[in-house]
Amino acid sequence: MLRLPPTRWTRPPSLDAAVAALGEPGARALAGGTDLVVALKNRTGRPQCLVSLADACPAGIDTGGGGWAIGAATTLWDLERWTAPPSVAAIPEAARSVAAPPIRSRATVGGNLCLDTRCVFYNQSAFWRSGRPPCRKAGGEVCHAVPGGDRCHAVFSADLPPALAAVGARVRVAGPDGERRKDVADLYTGQGLAPLALAAAEVVLSADVPALSGRSGSAFEKIRARRGLDFAAASAAVWVEAGDDGACRSARVVLGAVDSGPVRVARAEEALQGSLLEPEALETAADAARRAARPVKNADFTPAYRRKVVGVAVKRAASRAWQRAVGAREASS
Amino acid sequence: MSVYVGKSVPRRDTRLKATGEARYTADLALPFMLHAAVLRSPYPHARLLRVDTSRAEALPGVRAVITARDASGVKWGVFRYTRDQEFLARDRVRYIGEEIAAVAADTEEIAQEAVALIAVEYERLPAVFDPLDAIADGAPRIHDHAERNINIHVPIHVGDVDAAWDACDHVHTEMTRSEEESYFMTEPYAVLAHCDRQGTVEVWMPNASPHTKAKGLANALELPVSKVHVRHVAIGGAFGGRSDMFPGEYITALLSRKTRRPVRLVYTREENSIAVRQGHSMVVESRFGFKKDGTLHAVDVTCHMDGGAYSSTGPIATSVPFLCFEQTYRVANVRYNGYRVYTNKPIRGMIRTHGRAWACNVDMQLDLAAEALGLDPIEIRLKNALKTGDHTPTQSHIPSMASHETIRAVAEASRFREKWKRLPPWHGIGIGCVSVMSGFPMGIRGGSAAMVKFDEDGGVHLISGVVDNGQGNEGVVLQIAAEALGVPIDQIQLTASATEITPIDQGAYSQATTLVSGNAVRLACEDARRQLFEVAADVLEASAEDLELADGKVFVKGSPARAVPLAKVVRSGLLKGKSVIGHGSFGPNVDQRREWIQNPKGQLSAAFSYGSAVVEVRVDPETGFVDVLDVWASHDCGKAINPKEVEGQMDGGVAMGGHGGILLEALRWHEGANLNTNFLDYKIPLAPDMPPIHNFIVEADDPVGPFGAKEGGLSISMCTAQAYANAIAHAIGTHIREFPHTPDRVLDTIEAREGTEDEAS
């Protein structure tokens, strides 16, 4: 069977100790381990030391300060049970769509935010990869997904980041230089090789979700091969806000699993703004999403298919988000 | 009136498996046991120039390293004429995953580290990955003996196909393709072998036929069969993928022989996917001719199957898809050319649906003909389905087959005729039918035998070669024994699949167990009962013919008071030197002269079952996803020995053949490397994917089967596949010619069709 490589492991008792431990060469943060442990078995990551964040990061949803701070150590199992208001309903929806219940009971919010990019040519055993030159993500010079490609095309397929980005969440990050906050969207480089815009020894502490207008709604739509377990072949998170005139005042549209980072689609947002989310507006937004997507042949289904259905995901997420926004408005009036 | 047969009694292994107490091969350990790891080729086709094991041998904790230099050189193939595989590659590797060397070490980690230290110098050779490419001019030759890489050619021609087209009113040609399936048994392959100092070898491994494994291993190790003991162990699934010999058991036994210590080899999920067996991919070209009234008159099918690098069960795998067709629908003129082609891909074996492109092509042809001739899909199947008393084109007599009853059962339950062409847009309904054989000629290993002996307290011990891969075969023979003896199931102990004790048996293969092994058990129990009655006749001063056995007592029929406890009968016998041991031996009535390639005619099987399924779907026209609303499945399995078990097999058939086979499952490739070898990337259906299933067991007692029983389950795996495909075609207005029907293919087909027509019906 596949065996874990011999790897040192430590569980620092505090955030400061964890940040210090992560400053050591070859250290890597371990949260729920649902993705990292598989990578270790496949020898796609070779850290010298795993630093467990179990005692370093907060767990649970803190409601202080006019919004919600979702602790990085919160399990997806707990997050999917959050009775979120319609404005941020995309978040538990996205949590519920990850993997399967036994995995969600271990997987964490921080882990999902920091999920590595994936590629069917990279997420393979050491034996599998030994039959061909190493790809860029494995330290080589070639790309098996896009022969001749000049970058790593590994796909970013985490489900929470598009949802959090769509509702305008920020992340709180701690590192050797203290804490800072940044937009969820700014947590990502868009690069397949190194998808996270985190400095050395930085850890995500929480996702801070703002309290949004009572006239807004959000939704997350995921296209995947089966009704469980699978990573997204394409996904979309949409947040929309209804204005006083009954039309959409503002919108945010973020795609997942069609590029090396979450993709915000301004043209799709423009298509929704000022509309009543009628079919024509939805179709325009869907077309904008299709144009913004850059899928390659490294995930489930063909790239052409993923491009098509990311548009469908936008339409469906937008419709559901709008229903929530309008329903919320009716409930609040 | 049966007491134990026909009852849904819980299986004996259920609790053990539910609680995790059942012990599979990877759970077993012996004192002083070593751990093995295998060096496999990372290249699809290469010459081995040098294999240097010196650094591996020098690693502390390594106890043995073996290569082809240590091997006997005996080649494996199921038939004499298909022996083409050495268990350790000698000078050439032909697929990614082929075994080159192996290590036994103190721990699995050391063994894996040592494997990485073996230096191999390869000379890469051109490789070919598609059967049509492999038969083309200039393709790389994979085996010296195989011209154009053709491994097997099964030619069958009955009637006169070329002359028959003129008499047909509707003739249509179809081309279908299917990708490879994988079994994804819950249990990855594993072997524990122990060569003791007396020169015997004990082996534990998941298998479908312990006696076949013992013989193959004895050949490779150059030992008499009596020195190879394949032992009983819990097995986590087979589906056709545990049937023949694999290098794993030979390598493990050889390492044990060399180290004189027990050795255990546990495959990774990837090894289980690439280095055991896979299903064949296929390209099927069919021409079907019908008469105006819907009678199928002529069929010509050419099939190219990707067999991978070696023969395995090749001649059988190339024939069975055709055989399942010829016993399903009647046809006077038929020609089949089945080609199994070598490619530089892993070895292909038997798998449950025996080729989606084949089975679904047939039922696609029936639906298209029905449409052209103004019939409905039910009518054309009722018209053409074989039934009791018919003969197949290759001369099998069908002693019993309730085909029409199964078709009507699902047609009525699903209200098929009300729904056909009347469903809302993007909804569809489809039907599929298939007949499956209960065993086929397997030479000296085609029969089974059983023994029954008694403890002094009346306890019963049943000894049978039957093997249980998880489908419940042990429970089946226990229920048969209980019924035939008149003794409660919980008083019977079963010793099964332990080759030094159990008589030769065909194994859980070709759907023969219930009929063949079950009959052997029935006969053994009847023999034991007769002997018991002879003893009891003296005690009771009655005639043996007038005795009955029930509730632990032998008594005189009609006078239950004149009774003697079973234990006392056994003890009375022992006092007279008469130990009651029942013996039963059964060989099915098949034509042993029948041969897959040289002589494909004569009685194939003693019994033929039938399955029909109707599936109703709703297709999402924007994403191509298929929502399966309901599945109705009906099965003539003869008598259901355990109805709950049969229903479980039917549910499993829907999951594997229908939902997995048509919507989800396919192996993906990159230059001969399998891209999806794990449970995440290979899409077997999950619990939330499964549709509601409505099962109908159509009992039609088989004249040969024990208490009327025959094959149960496989029929449903195949016919639901066909029904899924036809239902999707009904929903989107056209058939999809590639399998599986993944959402991207469904959407492409919808869009291609919309390019030519206005909208789907």
Oligomer: heterodimer
Helix content of chain A: 25-40%
Tell me the β content of chain B: 15-25%
What is the number of helical segments of chain B per DSSP (H or I, 4+ residues)? 19
Q: Tell me, what is the CATH class of the largest domain in chain B?
A: Alpha Beta
Strand order of the largest sheet of chain B: 3-7-1-14-11-12-13
Largest sheet of chain A, if any?
5 strands, antiparallel
Give a count of the beta strands of chain A, DSSP E runs of length 2 or more. 12
Summarize the main sheet of chain B: 7 strands, mixed
Shape of chain B: globular
CATH architecture of the largest domain in chain A: 2-Layer Sandwich
> Which chains have the largest interface?
A-B, 31 and 39 residues
Let me know the average pLDDT of chain A. Answer: 96
Mean pLDDT of chain B: 96
- Please give the share of residues in helix of chain B: 25-40%
Q: Which range does the strand content of chain A fall in? A: 15-25%
Descriptive report:
The complex is a heterodimer of chains A (333) and B (761). Helix content of chain A is 29%, strand content 20%. With 333 residues, chain A is α+β, with helices and mostly antiparallel strands. Chain A has two domains: 1-51, 2-Layer Sandwich (Uridine Diphospho-n-acetylenolpyruvylglucosamine Reductase, domain 2); 61-114 and 155-332, Enolase-like, domain 1 (2-Layer Sandwich), CATH 3.30.390.50. In chain A, strand 6 and strand 7 (178-183) form a beta hairpin. Chain A starts with 7 loop residues before the first strand and ends with a helix. By secondary structure, chain B is of the alpha+beta class. Chain B has three domains: 18-125 and 186-237 and 242-274, Aldehyde oxidase/xanthine dehydrogenase, a/b hammerhead (Aldehyde Oxidoreductase, domain 3), CATH 3.90.1170.50; 281-441 and 594-754, Aldehyde oxidase/xanthine dehydrogenase, molybdopterin binding domain (Aldehyde Oxidoreductase, domain 4), CATH 3.30.365.10; 447-586, Aldehyde Oxidoreductase, domain 4 (2-Layer Sandwich). Helix content of chain B is 29%, strand content 25%. In chain B, helix 14 (473-485) packs parallel to helix 15 (513-540). The interface between A and B is medium-sized, with 31 and 39 residues.
